[in-house]
Amino acid sequence: MNVLKVSRWTIAAFILPCLIVYVGLVFVPILVSLYSGLLDWNGIGQSTFIGLENYVKMFTRDAVFWPAVRRTFTLAGFSMLVQVPVALTVAILITRFVRRPNFLVSSYFLPVILSVAIIGQLWKTIYNPASMGGMINQILTSVGLESWTHSWLTEPKIAIYAIILVSLWQYLGYHILIQFTGIQNIPSEIYEAAKIDGADGFKADRYITLPMVLPILKISIVLSFIGSLQSFDLIMVMTGGGPAHATEVLASHMYNMSFLTMQYGYGSAIANVLIVMCLVATVLINLLFTRMEKRYS
Amino acid sequence: MTKRKMKIFGMAMTGVLALSLSACGGGGTTNNAAGGSGSDPAASGGDSASGEKVTITFQNIYPDASDPKNKMMKKIVDQYQKDNPNVTIELDSLNTDQQKLKLKTQAASKEVPDITVVNPAAQMQPFVDADLFAPLNDMVEENGLKDTFQSGILDYYTFDNNLYALPDGNNIGVVYYNKKLMQEGGVEVPTTFEEMVAAVKTLKEKGIQPMVIGEKDSWTGSFLFMNILLRTNGGPGFLQEVLDGKKTFEDPAYVEAITAFQQLVDAGAFQDGATSFDYNAGENLFKTGTAAMYFMGSWATGGIETAEVSKDGNVGVFQFPTVGGKGNPDEFMLAPGSAFAISKDSKHLEETKDFLNYFMLNFPKEAFDVKGAVGIAQNVDGDFKAAGYSEMAMNVLDLFKKVKGGDLAFDNTMNPATTQVHLSGTQSLFVEKKDPAAVAKELQAAYEENK
Amino acid sequence: MSQYASSAGSKPALKVRTRRFSIKSLIAFALFGLLLLTQLYPLVWLLIYSLKTNEEILSGSFFSLPAQWQWSNYQGAIEGGNYLRYLGNSLFVTVTTMAGVIFLSSLAAFAIARFRWKYGQIVMLLFLLGMMIPMQGTLLPLMIIFKNIHILNTHLALILPYMAFQMPIAVFILSGFLRSIPHEIEESAIMDGAGAFRIFRSVILPVSIPPMMTVCILTFINVWNEYILAATFISSEQLKTLPFGVYSFVSQYSVNYGAIGAFLVLAALPVIVVYFLLAEKITKGMVAGAVKG
Q1: Contact check, Cβ <8 Å, A259/B104
Q2: Angle of helix A135-142 relative to helix A116-127, nearest 10 degrees?
Q3: Which other chains touch chain C, taking contact as 3+ CB pairs less than 8 Å apart?
């Protein structure tokens, strides 16, 4: 229980400056967006109130919407189930084997800092057809696996996975960094105590590191989930959502609708659905982890 | 200023600028032949007599300092500021995509900059409907500016007899070809679409990339498709007839165009992974001499003629041929360019009009000087050949003279939502075999939904 | 169990344990090396890219070197891209944003984590909600708000929303950290008769440096490359930030890729330098106290 008892005015003085900026510039726009989602509006001229029609259209008649939802969750799934566990493994290994880990961890983080424009260009040279000097296809051809070559970014069934791979690669370092610091903050006394009890090496990881790092793992998973749901710049750079919407995700669909095809009301409705999905997912992840934490403690 | 503005409304259409801005009335040396001696600073209608400090925001899409258009813009702006020391022109130079996004956001909150950039016809309709732009009917008469424009071009920017924007370009769709590669492949310049498909097959067999396209920006494929439609429809106006309710997208002309387009794709015309190439990457394939043919708007002329491939007059141009014996090659895809519009709520409306008038008067001559005068919207009197324009540029100019009408790009005729479905439908033809009738049906459904 | 003690004081125990070479460690180091290669290669690639001609870049071979090193790209980037002015503006906007985020968020985090009051959790939830909101969805409403408070085309129009969008994660990290500090630390201060503000300044602030560094870095990364808001709210040349420079090489029908590469190298340089300088602090501070949730 917190000990500091303070007057209402003090609380206000601490909370309000931050809250006002935040509510005014993040929250109010979202309320506006909730309302815009009920309009038939091109963003410029007259608007018509159409109730839930945008949502009806989205759920029943928009041929792009559901596939985009599926792809968005595929991306989020890969991110949570592949990227985060790999990051955790690497983080544990670094803590175990490396004595001066900062350079390594910082280097892994580098792709996060670089502009997406460059990341996209780089990976295009990797995915290009062999005739264009694409790395993967050239390697496949040179080892005699010509039948395995693909036009990675333009075959509708493959393209989205090619992009997911880039996304996993780019943010791997971000999650390594988070997990690594989490592990660093586990008090050494616990390991020493465990060592006396005969728990060492991977056994210690199983019984100490994992449970202790759960809260951080939760943050990592929430961040990766929200990040996946909102990511669209990489897709815009690499395929623009094409060919024929084959790599469209919710965030890019929303951007297209709001700003390119001038259906601002409809775009807002998509944005609102996106926010609700993030919310539900966060609550679910929280519940899951609370259970796991209870079981371990 | 407001009193003066009030007065203006009472005045006659012509001469408004000179009277309102200049107490000494020294402005207005008319200069029609801007190509000849257009840099005459007196072409500016106003002078500095009013003395009030004025800042005009000029949103534009010429951000790259190494681009001739950027240099040209800065030159004209500098000259104007010198002649009118009280006026500061603030350049807000953005790349095209960002400018579109910014203008839409600004328009939503009625914060349109003094001068901005819009696209013609259907694309600027929503802005006009929202009453954001000032009519330029009077301004374009000043200093004979109107007569510098090619006849008919201003119609694309005119709504209910009010002109709202002045274009910087006017282009047509042409096919560039690499003479050396065509020769190596043993093919002639095709005069029909069928010959074109045959040429593609021959080139492909000989290991030469027949055509290239940057189809990630899906308008590129649409632009080519629309030219085929212009032929299969036997002439221009298909989309207008759809809008008028006389035809649907399931009309044989449209389905036939899809079939023809598919033939081209199936023949292996385009490079592998075409849908992941953006406009520049696609064009670069032609510029580096790896492809035999390239269909594009004539705006590409400047970039191609300075590229490696154009050495020794190696690049030629031809008109898009007939399809199935239909259509007239002298009808082209028409691409009236992006255009400058003035905000209705500009705080310095008169000064802004005066500046834009000056800018457009000087535009052709300056463009001519930086060899950027192929495909501008105004008449140029200079001798292109003597000025060192390439033979290919001259060929493109010759094609311009042949133009007997044509069609606008899809997005300049249809609403954005329908356009989006058309673009992705066309893009899908590059990656999978589709039933032309089904593609047409899907588009018709989208059109009806978004009417 | 004291998280505070562990994060600020004692050495992590794990790494001291193993120093022998084994198959396991060999495999691990092979993995580290491979990762290092894939994660650092983009930087090398960008450097080479920035020295190529447009044609070489677009021809897109993965390993190729430029035929001639195009140092002129850098000249073009600095002159044509207005590098120095934009750099100054970016620094100003970013540093101000960071300072604002740190100051306001730590005040709020302190109140949420340490005050005895009913609504702490609700306010926290409100902030959490902000993490779910896509920035581009707020573009239009923000434009209208800024128009009405007359701050369009000023740096404030960037600093305010940047701050607002960083606050949720900042409050989240900082309050998580503050919660992990034992209560004894301010109890003694209360005994001395210190008020809330003095406790904040002389007790809480000094120990919160590591998580603050984390917030700084996250803010820096998100703000430094931001372009959509900047391009929409800023029109004056004197006020523009670095991403404008990058996109100034993109014309309607041509792109000056080499100059973009050079400009990106110049723009990323400060980030990388700052990052590696602060790396020590970050690894300590990143989500430091949040272990306790």
Answers
A1: yes
A2: 20
A3: A, B
